Amino acid sequence: MYAKSYEEEKLAAAAKKQPPSKKIKSTNNEPLAPVALSARSSKNTVELHEKLQFYGITQTLEFGGSTLEGWTAKTEILGEVVEEKRLFSSKQEAKEVLSGRALELVKRLEAEGKLSKPGKSKRSKSAASTVDAQEQEKPEPGPNYIGQLLEFQRSTNSTQPTYQDYGLGTKFACVVTIEGVPETFGSINDLFTSKKLARQNAAKCAVEHFKSTGAWPESFTDVGGIKKKKKVQPSEPGAISLDGIPIGPSPAQKVAPLAAELGLGTPQWEYETATHPQATGMTTVACHFRNGGPHAGPIGEVRNVFGRKRAKDECARLVVEYLEQLKDQRLSYGRKMLERIDNADEVVSAGAEQPDNTKMVRGSESEDEFHDAE
Predict the structure, then answer these.
(1) How far is 300 from 289, CA to CA, in rounded Å?
(2) For residue 197, what pLDDT is reported?
(3) Helix (H, G, I), strand (E, B) or coil at 88
(4) Are the CB atoms for 74 and 86 separated by under 8 Å?
(5) Domain locations in the chain?
(6) Can you tell me whether residue 363 is helix, strand or coil?
(7) Which residue stretches does the UniProt record annotate as biased composition, category Basic and acidic residues (predicted)?
(8) Cis peptide before 161 (omega within 30 of 0)
């Protein structure tokens, strides 16, 4: 027994004499990059909310699980329980999947005729004044770019944007993708303290993009939002309604398709507001085409016109005249070239050799006429 304890003490002493192991230093000096967390889409959630709001249906929503294990979700609509037992990395992701299943339930009840829109209930004046007072006391937040982008997609009957969240330590970034738009908005290098701020930044980039391309409605306000455009019956160009107002596209609406047909790109409208006290409300506006070459602009410039909309309409009318003249020039030049090619083919087919005449015909095209047709 003494021999056994002696051996154990000897082994313990030998283990203490061994030098401590050194930590291997990493030679990888590459900067840390954000890691993709999850793709955030609220298409099903938004559509379900609109359906329930339309029919006046209340919804209960319960979550189970934890951040480490994952989240489950359960809801009850009109006494029917819809439950999603799969584990998801976030509550929002679980809610989106659950909303998809609940939406199928609502659509089925809707098809069976079991849902009806409730009547409007009258609200007392005292309750209305109390609510209005509470709303006035609330501080006005900054622009809700996520909500603005959502309303814009609704107004154009497009699918809802998808937000891809990224995380780097305690900071977050977000990139938003929109169906039908080739580019993405936001950057993984723009880090924020919360996911909501990161999504706001990505939505802001998308809103600014649509504004720069002229697709954002001019009638938009932070209070009124964006309304869906009403479908207008197609009418003949230049038609006039009974009250004398022209029917059809405005000059500003004609510029974009004409410019695309001529290969000039998207029109850019540059405004300048008069600063002199005696010229209050006067606006100067001109149209430019980026990478338009000799037609880059300014085109159709009008100066000191009262009202921003009126100034743009007048400028657009001049731009349309300019583009139509350019289109006629190019068509005329193309017809002349085809006629000369046909004449040359006839000479060749007849077996006549006229090098001097051919040279004269091809050389008669002036450089000024060629540049005008560009």
Answers:
(1) 12
(2) 92
(3) strand
(4) no
(5) 38-111, 148-212, 249-374
(6) helix
(7) 1-11
(8) no
Domain 148-212: top CATH class:
alpha beta
Stated pTM of the model: 0.34
pLDDT in tens, 174-212: 999 888 788 889 988 889 999 999 999 999 999 988 888
* Alpha carbon distance 307, 67 (integer Å): 56
- % of the chain surpassing 70 pLDDT: 66
- Banded pLDDT at 246 (limits 50, 70, 90): low
Instruction: Give the pLDDT confidence of 6-58 residue by residue, as tens digits.
Output: 667 776 666 565 555 555 555 556 667 776 666 667 788 888 888 888 888 88
Token couple for 236: 């003949």
- 8 A C-beta contact, residue 158 and residue 149: no
326: tokens are 């350019």
Contact 321, 259 (CB under 8 A): no
The second-level CATH assignment, the architecture, of 249-374 is 2-Layer Sandwich (3.30)
- Check residue 108 and report its DSSP letter: H
What per-residue confidence (pLDDT) applies to 138?
Answer: 46
CA distance 88 to 67: 9
Q: Which pair of tokens denotes residue 189?
A: 């290098």
- Residue 242 confidence (pLDDT): 45
Q: CA-CA distances (angstroms) from residue 64 to 10, 34, 91, 98?
A: 56, 28, 9, 13
Rounded CA separation 57/220 (Å): 30
The Cα-based distances of 306 to 171, 248, 297, 321 in angstroms read 49, 24, 22, 22
CA pseudo-torsion sign 366, 369, 372, 374: negative
Domain 38-111 has CATH 3.40.1280.10: no
The pLDDT of 301-311, averaged and rounded, is 80
Residue 146 CA to residue 157 CA, distance in Å, equals: 17
Rounded Cα distance between 150 and 226, Å, is: 10
Nearest to 238 by CA among 250, 253, 255: 250
pLDDT confidence band for 106 (50 / 70 / 90): confident
- Between 324 and 15, the higher pLDDT residue: 324
